[in-house]
Design a protein that fits this description.
It is a single chain. This protein has a domain at 14-52. Helices cover 19% and strands 29% of the residues. The protein is built from 1 helix and 3 strands. It has one helix at residues 14-25; strands at 30-34, 38-45, 48-52. A 3-stranded antiparallel β-sheet has the order 1-2-3, with helices on one face. It is globular and about 40 Å long.
Amino acid sequence: MTGYDTYGTSTHTASELVRLVTGHLDVVFTERESDYRGVYHLARSTFGRIEIQPNAIPGDDG
């Protein structure tokens, strides 16, 4: 069975979050690009897969 958890941060960019998670979980992320999803980062390991994807926040023009 697949389980999904979603978390958000307004402090770090997706690339910064990839660096932080890589150091703590000892995984390697690869950058992927999709016409549907845009750019996202994917790590696969024996525990499953982790995806980090930036999403626009309404009202955040920066």
